[in-house]
User: Which sequence fits this backbone?
């Protein structure tokens, strides 16, 4: 079987085979519309569309290595790239055909993982605050999600989901909004319905689009977000960052809870001290507490 490197694909009727690591994948819908994989090998990254034959990716897991056979290459139009904010830089995408197969290759773990260039959340807030960054700037972001907000723009569906993210640069109070619009919102709802969803959880977004309003970054129409803890074969580098954020968040929450308890106790101590200064104040307080 001839394997074609990702960087060598060209449009045409030729059927290609590719061996690559799955960096991310969409959720399969009933009719397989908008189903796709994002994959990489040593030469680059590529998107594999599965609109008509999504059943062929049922057993595919994120970060697994597979050989995908009988694929057809087609050029990605600039219109589609802008509309769907496709994070893959390749000019072409691959499409499953009726003869395509997904063959697992666990022995080929040397293939690279997706690379991220994360921007800390506080830096994103500063760029919006000082007016130096305008709409359409793209960033990779990772953060701890402390709140999920579903926004209903009609009576039938959730059109948008907002994830409130924090990291060690913002603390627990100040954060940033990752807005899931369109397909990412549908993907996220599906993941939450599985019953395996962790809380709180770490979220990763590739090529989110910075918005100069409301401290938010948008995932795009079909640019999926990644929940590292839900990956069956986690990316080692992402796992390290995920563990750090979880440890930071747990410690910050414990410190905040301890501070809240001290603040609650402070007024009571002040009242006790004031009562003690008044003649018979302490005895009066004891009687009041008994009553």
Assistant:
């Amino acid at each position: 079987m001839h394997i074609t490197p990702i960087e060598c694909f060209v449009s045409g009727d030729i059927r290609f085979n590719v061996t690559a690591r799955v960096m991310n994948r969409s959720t399969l819908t009933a009719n397989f519309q908008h189903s796709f994989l994002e994959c990489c090998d040593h030469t680059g990254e590529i998107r594999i569309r599965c609109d008509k034959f999504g059943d062929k990716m049922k057993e595919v897991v994120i970060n697994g290595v597979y050989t995908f056979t009988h694929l057809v290459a087609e050029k990605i139009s600039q219109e589609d790239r802008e509309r769907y904010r496709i994070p893959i830089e390749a000019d072409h995408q691959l499409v499953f055909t009726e003869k395509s197969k997904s063959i697992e290759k666990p022995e080929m773990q040397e293939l690279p993982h997706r690379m991220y260039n994360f921007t800390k959340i506080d830096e994103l807030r500063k760029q919006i605050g000082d007016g130096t960054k305008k709409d359409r700037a793209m960033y990779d972001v990772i953060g701890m999600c402390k709140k999920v907000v579903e926004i209903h723009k009609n009576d039938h569906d959730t059109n948008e989901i907002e994830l409130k993210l924090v990291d060690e640069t913002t603390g627990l109070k100040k954060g940033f909004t990752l807005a899931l619009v369109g397909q990412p919102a549908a993907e996220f709802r599906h993941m939450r319905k599985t019953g395996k969803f962790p809380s709180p959880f770490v979220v990763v977004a590739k090529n989110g689009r910075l918005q100069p309003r409301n401290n938010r970054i948008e995932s795009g129409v079909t640019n999926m977000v990644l929940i590292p803890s839900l990956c069956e074969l986690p990316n080692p580098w992402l796992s390290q960052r995920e563990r750090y954020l979880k440890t930071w968040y747990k410690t910050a929450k414990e410190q905040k809870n301890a501070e809240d308890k001290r603040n609650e106790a402070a007024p009571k101590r002040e009242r006790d001290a004031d009562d003690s200064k008044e003649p018979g104040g302490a005895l009066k307080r004891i009687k009041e507490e008994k009553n």
In short: The first strand starts at residue 15 and ends at 25. DSSP finds five helices and twelve strands in the chain.
